[in-house]
Every structure is written in structure tokens, then in C-alpha cells.
Amino acid sequence: MRTDECGRCLRYRNGLKCDAFPRGIPEDILTGAKSHAKPHIGDQGITFSPIPKELMKAINKKEGEILIEHVNRVIELEDVAYRRVKSLLKKKGYFERDFNEGGPFYGWSINELLDLVQQKV
User: Fold this and answer.
1) What is the pLDDT of residues 22-75, one digit of tens each?
2) 85 is in which domain, residue-wise?
3) Residue among 110, 104, 119 nearest 86 (CA)
4) Tens digits of per-residue pLDDT, 35-49?
5) 31 and 78 together in one domain
6) Are residues 37 and 14 in the same domain?
7) Do 83 and 44 belong together in one domain?
């Protein structure tokens, strides 16, 4: 089990390291057996320093923005894939109306359309 103290500290760095322990945070601090709010052997006099609430809100907002960008990119790629598969089916003799509302392939997923391209349907 790991404590979240390190993740809330200004001094934390990736790779389970921090300014106080550049070679690696001791296990008793990582597990929460000891808090680093007080000095610890080898910490160079550097102790836990919580990330200010306003900065934490900004970090969380940025992570949210990154997630939204990722989801939008996935949607964009799915749209590109759908258009390419639809184009292949049109070359096989299907029509645009087949994919529109009321058409036989309206609402089909990309995978279902790919099966049609490969004649598995």
C-alpha cells in the first residue's frame, strides 16, 4: 500500500524520487508507515511540502483538458476510419443512402462494416 502524501508534495518527482530523496524515496515513507512531515534520515533537511490548493486545482483542470483532448482525438480517428470503410463499400457498389438513416447499414459499427468489406456478413 502506498500513501498519497508523496503525490501531494511539491517536491515529488516521477520515478518514486523527490528533492529530498533523489535516489529514491524510502519504503517506510512510500507505504505511509512514516510521514515525511517530520525530518527523516537522509532527507537533506527537506520535508513534505503540500501542493497549494490553487495549484492542485490547476493540475486537475489540466489533466481534465488532456483527457478531453484524448477523447476528441479518438472520436476523430473513429470518424476517419468510418469514412474510409464507407468509401471501400461504395467502391464495392453500395450507395451513400445505404449508410444514412433508413438505410440497411445505418448505425452499424466500424467493425460490422469491416466484416461487410471482408464479406463475413
Assistant:
1) 888 998 888 888 999 999 988 988 999 988 888 878 877 888 787 778 777 877
2) 63-121
3) 110
4) 999 999 889 889 999
5) no
6) yes
7) no
